[in-house]
């Protein structure tokens, strides 16, 4: 049976409780999870930038997600749910992402 990440963090908290007696297991959990929350929050933003966390690595938006989001934006535009300016802004983000990562993708039709 595989352990959940929560269980692993709380097990870790038990092993360091003598070294850090003023920290509760919940505080240690929050400290351990904070880099991943940072990554998740940055991935939700519309900047599409890579995130480097020392000792953990570099996290980036999957190229397929960028293409998929552009298709969703095109659909929303055709349904009248977003303006042309919003679509053009996302297209700019899309193009910049692929230019930065050395790829070429479809642009607006």
Structure description:
The protein has helices at 5-16, 25-44, 63-78, 84-100; strands at 51-53, 57-59. The protein is mostly helical. It folds into two domains: 5-48, no CATH class; 63-100, no CATH class. The protein has a two-stranded antiparallel sheet. Strand 1 and strand 2 (57-59) form a beta hairpin. The mean pLDDT is 85.
Q: Any key phrases for this structure?
A:
109 residues; mainly alpha; 2 domains; 4 helices; 6% strand
Largest beta sheet, briefly? 2 strands, antiparallel
How many β strands by DSSP?
2
Residue fraction in strands: 5-15%
Query: So what's the overall shape?
Result: elongated
Structural class: mainly alpha
Number of structurally distinct domains: 2
Helical segment count: 4
Distance between the termini: 50 Å
Compute the CA-based radius of gyration: 20 Å
Helix fraction, binned, reads 55-70%
Order of strands in the sheet with most strands: 1-2
SSE topology string: HHEEHH
Stretches where pLDDT is under 50 for at least 5 consecutive residues are none
């Amino acid at each position: 049976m595989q352990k959940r990440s929560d269980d692993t963090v709380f097990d870790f908290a038990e092993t360091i409780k003598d070294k850090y007696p003023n920290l509760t297991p919940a505080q240690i959990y929050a400290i351990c999870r904070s880099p991943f929350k940072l990554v998740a929050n940055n991935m939700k933003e519309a900047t599409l930038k890579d995130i480097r966390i020392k000792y953990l690595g570099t996290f980036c938006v999957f190229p397929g997600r960028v293409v998929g989001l552009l298709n969703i934006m095109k659909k929303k535009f055709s349904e009248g749910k977003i303006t042309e300016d919003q679509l053009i802004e996302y297209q700019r983000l899309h193009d910049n992402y692929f230019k930065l990562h050395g790829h070429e993708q479809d642009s607006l039709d």
